[in-house]
Write a structure and sequence with these properties.
- The complex is a heterodimer of chains A (590) and B (169).
- Chain A is an alpha+beta fold and 590 residues long.
- In chain A, 29% of the residues lie in helices and 34% in strands.
- Chain A is built from 15 helices and 21 strands.
- In chain A, α8 runs parallel beside α9, α10 runs antiparallel to α13 and α13 runs antiparallel to α14.
- The longest helix of chain A is centred in the middle third of the chain and has 22 residues.
- Chain B is mainly alpha-helical.
- The N and C termini of chain B lie far apart (36 Å).
- The chains are: A alpha+beta (590), B mainly alpha (169).
- Chains A and B meet through β5, α5, β6, α6 and α13 of A and α1, α4, α5, α6 and α7 of B.
Chain lengths: 590, 169
């Protein structure tokens, strides 16, 4: 039943989530588990007696394992010869299986849900990259131009079929880290040899199955978790909602019930961006000065500068250029810029080849492991508290599906961000409860860069669609609107961030605004004095260009993490005439 | 998109007009870069807007392109080697300069090179590829041309030590 993904509907009938009928042995197999079981059993009997149907039986090695385990094979049974499975998969050479988590795309908070896949570790140490390892990916089979609205609609509502695909894992990892600029983490699973072989067999069996893809409730997280769940009997899909995020599956590896931990080890594969950030961050002031000066030299002077450059600077130059090429390939596709970057890269590479190899190799360093995704705070949160607004008390309650705001610790390897998907806020004042806010999405991409602004064209941006007030001070001032901003952020140290934004909001009218359009700007700072605390100072201005009216407020927010699931916050806001203070307790959960 | 498509077409033509550094030899199978569609796997015609959409709604469809365009011989280890060189070229170039690193290890693994032979092969490959990098025209070459050059260098080095690797290019 589990292998063929059957589920029972509300009428008590069975149907498989596998949508292609040809996957099944029986013509009725998709909707009749018993017919499928009987048909497969008939094949086994026929094969045992006459050797027929060997090719079909070889498509289902996991079923074969279960038949063996339950003594359902006839006495005259002999194992079929399955050359495709044996030669392509080489199951006997697979020692272990890892769950791989790929972080979101480079500087895109909305993709911070990430992605998960399986990796099959062939003979050798799991600490060394092996070109022969393979991976199993689950994704939608895209038939539309991904730039179209159909792509989003079909991705959300099951318009695409989806399937598992096998990949060369080494190249697959390279695609994530060096092309898409995403960090990856590998979690080796604590499986018995029998479980490894079963998972390998099931992964082969399921390759020919097709499913419907639903971005929220039948995605890579569901399907990859399902393979592990069928193999181990442990629950990796624990979530309070109808959705399942990849990061939840990773977190569930630690909490999934069982006698032993499900994870035995972790390997971090940094992206090009993480490699450059780490190496640049560890460079001393003199190296950083030389690095910046080099890229401001004219072409003639660069040659001489390279001859004099320390080996670690050559590495840093190459890191930077490889990163810039990847960004151009990923976003801009500016062939002229790519060619110019390749020219600069050739100069550096030529200098590296001119020197003895030992001079270059001796400076290769490891990038340290950042905080593991497995330790991340759960994505959903409920918050309750009370406040005082101009001497009048009120209560505040909110629920957020996902994922984080500027006071939450960022995802590993990522800059601070705000990435809120669906948040509901209610305020109770006296005997009445009012809908205070309903956030559809609220994205703030801080996107700092350690390099001076003259070396980078990247900036910060935000995009929000919500029904919400502009601050805590006002009452009955929520409006529905779309707001976009551009800005710039700098991070002088790991504990200190400054940001500034300017933009506009198109919205419905409310008690405070007479028109449908406002200009907005905000400056602020986030300070992380300790691992468990964060302080945000901000000031925000909204201007109605038609009337010239301006409203402003300044605020302080302080967050203290009490446990991995609990947080205390206090917020204070004021303007010229009013002030408000609000204290809340939050509970984070999957 | 038009510009991307033109660039893609030009890249696909490169192996046809470039010096025949990996030309077919009798019994050596197809040229992996011109006959097996590896170039099209690396340079799909996806515009930045499409990439941006996928960034927002990542449907997991980032599997590397595996649909190579041709004969069964394109599943050979020779083609796997060619593909590894093409797709990880920037990392591999750096590793060759250092004579170590995970990309160089991967190349040795795919070619099933003997552990004891690897340091010597790395040193010879460095010497051979240094000439290519030092060439004036190197900076103007497309990635697929540089990959072809490196493939030829690997081929020459391993053929000079015939017992060092199990995979013959």
């Amino acid at each position: 039943m589990e292998l063929s993904q059957y589920y029972e509907n509300w009428r008590g009938d069975y149907s498989s989530q596998i949508v292609n009928a040809e996957f099944f042995v029986s013509d009725e197999g998709r909707t009749d588990p018993l017919a499928e079981f009987s048909a497969f059993q008939d094949l086994i009997l026929a094969y045992a007696q006459s050797g027929e149907h060997e090719e079909t039986i070889c498509l289902f090695p996991a079923r074969m394992i279960l038949f063996k385990q339950h003594d359902r094979l006839p006495l005259e049974w002999r194992d079929p010869s399955c050359p495709d499975f044996e030669e392509q998969i080489r199951p006997g050479s697979i020692e272990s299986v890892s769950l791989v988590f790929a972080s979101g795309y480079f500087d895109s908070p909305s993709s911070y849900y990430g992605h998960v896949l399986l990796k099959f570790n062939y003979e050798g140490s799991p600490d060394t990259p092996r070109a022969l390892d393979s991976s199993l990916n689950y994704g939608a089979d895209i038939t539309d131009n991904p730039a179209s609205l159909f792509y989003i609609a079909n991705g959300l509502f099951g318009g695409y079929k989806a399937s598992y695909t096998r990949n060369d894992h080494f190249l697959h990892t390279y695609l994530y880290t060096n092309v898409q600029l995403r960090d990856t983490w590998e979690y080796e699973l604590n499986l018995t040899d029998e479980q490894v072989q079963f998972l390998v067999a099931y992964s082969w069996e399921i390759l020919s199955a097709q499913f419907r893809y639903y971005f929220f409730n039948d995605n890579c997280a569901h399907r990859i978790a399902d393979l592990i769940e069928v193999t181990t009997g442990r629950d990796l899909s624990d979530t309070h909602g109808f959705w399942l995020l990849p990061i939840q599956v990773v977190r569930n590896l630690r909490t999934a019930g069982g006698p032993e931990p499900l994870v035995t080890g972790e390997i971090y594969n940094p992206s090009l961006k993480s490699v450059f950030s780490a190496r640049y961050g560890s460079a001393d002031a003199d190296q950083k000065k030389k690095f910046i000066e080099y890229f401001e030299l004219n072409e003639q002077d660069k040659g001489q500068a390279l001859v004099e450059a320390a080996p670690e600077l050559l590495q840093l130059f190459l890191d930077y250029l490889d990163l810039e090429v990847a960004k151009q390939m990923l976003f801009a596709e500016d062939e002229v810029s790519i060619h110019a970057l390749q020219g600069q890269r050739a100069l550096i590479l030529s200098e590296m080849f001119r020197r003895p190899a030992k001079d270059i190799a001796a400076r290769a360093e490891k990038i340290s492991l950042p905080r593991s995704p497995i330790e991340m705070k759960p994505p959903s949160v409920i918050r309750a508290g009370g406040g005082v607004r101009d001497g009048r008390g009120f209560q505040s309650y909110s629920y957020r599906v996902a994922n984080n705001d500027l006071l939450d610790r960022p995802s590993p390897g990522q800059e601070a961000s705000r990435f809120i998907m669906f948040e509901l806020g209610i305020e109770v004042d006296g005997g009445s409860a009012d809908l205070r806010k309903l956030v559809i999405f609220d994205l703030v991409n801080i996107n700092t860069n350690p390099l001076p602004s003259r070396m980078t064209h990247e900036g910060s941006w935000s995009l929000t669609l919500d029904y919400a007030p502009r601050n805590l001070l006002c009452t009955d001032c929520s409006n529905f609107g779309l707001e976009g901003r551009l800005g710039r952020s700098i991070r002088p140290s790991a504990q200190l961030l400054f940001y500034g934004f300017a933009g506009a909001r198109v919205h419905t009218r409310d008690s405070d605004t007479a028109n449908y359009f406002q200009l907005s700007s905000e400056i602020g700072s986030v300070i992380n004095p300790t691992e468990k605390s964060a302080l945000e100072l901000s000031a925000e201005v909204y201007v109605d260009p038609a009337s010239g009216d301006a409203t402003w407020h300044a605020g302080i927010d302080f967050a203290l993490t009490l446990t991995p699931h609990a947080e205390f916050r206090v917020s204070y806001e004021r303007n010229r005439r009013e002030q408000v203070v609000l204290a809340t307790l939050a509970y984070y959960f999957d | 998109m038009i510009r991307t498509t033109l660039v893609f077409c030009l890249l696909m033509l490169v192996p046809l007009i470039a010096p025949d550094v990996v030309a077919d030899e009798p019994g050596s199978g197809p040229n992996p870069y011109s006959d097996c569609g590896i170039g099209s796997a690396l340079f799909p015609t996806v515009g930045w807007a499409a990439v941006s959409s996928n960034i927002i709604w990542d449907l997991g469809s980032t599997a590397i392109t595996s649909a190579l365009s041709s004969p069964e011989t394109c599943e050979s280890d020779k083609v796997k080697t060619a593909r590894l060189i093409l797709e990880t070229l920037p990392g591999l170039e750096r590793d060759i300069a250092r004579e170590n690193g995970k990309y160089l290890t991967a190349l040795n693994d795919v070619m099933a090179c003997d552990a004891s032979a690897r340091p010597g092969l790395a040193a010879q490959l460095r010497v051979s590829y240094a000439d290519i990098v030092g060439d004036e025209g190197y900076a103007d070459k497309a990635q697929i041309e540089r990959a072809s050059d490196l493939f030829a260098a690997v081929k020459n080095v391993t053929q000079a030590s015939p017992d060092s690797c199990n995979v013959n290019l």
